[in-house]
Amino acid sequence: MNTMQSLPLLQNALTVGAILFSLGLVGILTRRNLIVMFLAAEMMLQGISVSLVAWSRYHGDWGGHVLVIFVLTVAACEAAVALVFVLQAFSRTGRLDSAAWQSLREATVGRMIDHELPSIDTLPPRFPTLTPAGILPPADENEPLQRQHV
Amino acid sequence: MTAIPFDPFASGPLLAGAVVATVASLWLLLPNGRDSNSARWLGMLVGVAALAAFILAGRRLGGLGEEAVFLIVSLVAVISAAATIVSRSPVYAAIWFALTLAGVAGVLLVLGAQFLGVATIVVYAGAILVMFLFVLMLAQPAGLAPYDRVSNEPFLSALAGAVLLGVLSLSIGRLTAAPAACCGLPSRGTPVASSPPASADAGTSTSAPDAGAVALAADPLAENHVARLGGELFGRYLVSVEAAGVLLLVALIGAIAVVSRGEAALAGDTTTTRPIADRSSAR
């Protein structure tokens, strides 16, 4: 069983899990879109799952695997319930902004004020253009634009 | 080299540099209201430096093939995770998160968790992420919303995350293969409660063929992986499976109840139960 207990693999996998957890933490702290905040929370769960499976591999038992299955279950429940609340919040305020609910804050916390943003994106979207191929067929005036039946 | 796998004095400055580079990269990349391309490119460059530092600080696995596969899938997971939290558009964030899930599934497969790797793809990318995308399509206004182009305290958040990452990496690097002094590991395959207290070698406590069979049944890398995982799940953890089933049912009912009641409240009804009663009487 000594070949199964590979400490370098455990350490590398734990590092990957730690990076995923930390990135998820940064995301949930700093983003303001509710859905991106939930994606960041799911990312933290992924980091935990990687760590659990790494420990399970190292010790050679099934506890980590089973716990990750329950993490998947709870994540599915959490996503269903949370998305319902996100939809309710959106239909009440018209925004997916967590700062739209800042009237729920503590009385001692100051109000967050949005600064003026540059009005339009400095990066306009560039859509792909197709090169024309072949000869444009002559338009038939009598042909109806839409079929009667599909 | 093999006796002491980690030298904190050699890797300490490397780790500190990786933490500083992570802070700088995240601070430059997070949306800050100014969409400047130069800051974005600089952030990507510093992020690549941080990744290189983490790769250098990582342990070398045994074989070149295993190491290459692990490096590729973990790089996919980590890079797309960073792209998830820094992308301005939430739809792009969701798609980057799908790529993160693919990388995580690859890491799980490298770790020998075949069922979990496939289940991550099927359940997360197939069900949960599609649900997120549905909500985004329902709720996303056209174009980039102003709250997607700014972020709350990007520097402090990046600092908190990177310091947590540094502390975690430090403690991960100090792991050793020696067993803990206080308590022995529970013997494999046997319940924890009935395992004898820590003994020097496990072979003396139980008879040798039993111990071998038990160790084989508990080894996740042996054959018949999914069958033995199912056996474990529905044998030793049966009560937990039942509890998870109840949790799923409660979440389903709760989600439906909140949606219908919220719609009634938004429609301006004071009696929130009337639409449900109407619906059931019309059927």
Description:
The complex is a heterodimer of chains A (150) and B (283). Chain A is an all-alpha fold and 150 residues long. Chain A has a domain at 7-99: Helix Hairpins (Orthogonal Bundle). Helices cover 54% and strands 0% of the residues of chain A. Chain A is extended and about 75 Å long. Chain B is mainly α and 283 residues long. Helices cover 68% and strands 0% of the residues of chain B. Chain B is built from ten helices and no strands. Chain B has helices spanning 8-29, 37-57, 64-86, 90-110, 114-139, 154-173, 208-218, 225-235, 238-266, 274-282. The N and C termini of chain B lie far apart (75 Å). The model of chain B is unreliable at 1-5, 187-209 and 270-283 (pLDDT under 50). Chains A and B meet through α1, α2 and α3 of A and α2, α3, α4, α5 and α6 of B.
Give me the Rg of chain A, rounded. 26 Å
Mean pLDDT of chain B: 78
User: Can you count the helices of chain A?
Assistant: 3
Query: Can you tell me the overall shape of chain A?
Result: extended
CATH class of the domain at 7-99 in chain A: Mainly Alpha
With helices defined by DSSP (H or I, 4 residues minimum), what is the helix count of chain B?
Answer: 10
Q: Which structural class matches the secondary elements of chain A?
A: mainly alpha
List the helices and strands and how they pair.
The complex is a heterodimer of chains A (150) and B (283).
Chain A: H1 7-30, H2 34-59, H3 63-93
Helix pairs in contact in A: 1-2, 2-3
Chain B: H1 8-29, H2 37-57, H3 64-86, H4 90-110, H5 114-139, H6 154-173, H7 208-218, H8 225-235, H9 238-266, H10 274-282
Helix pairs in contact in B: 1-2, 1-6, 3-4, 4-5
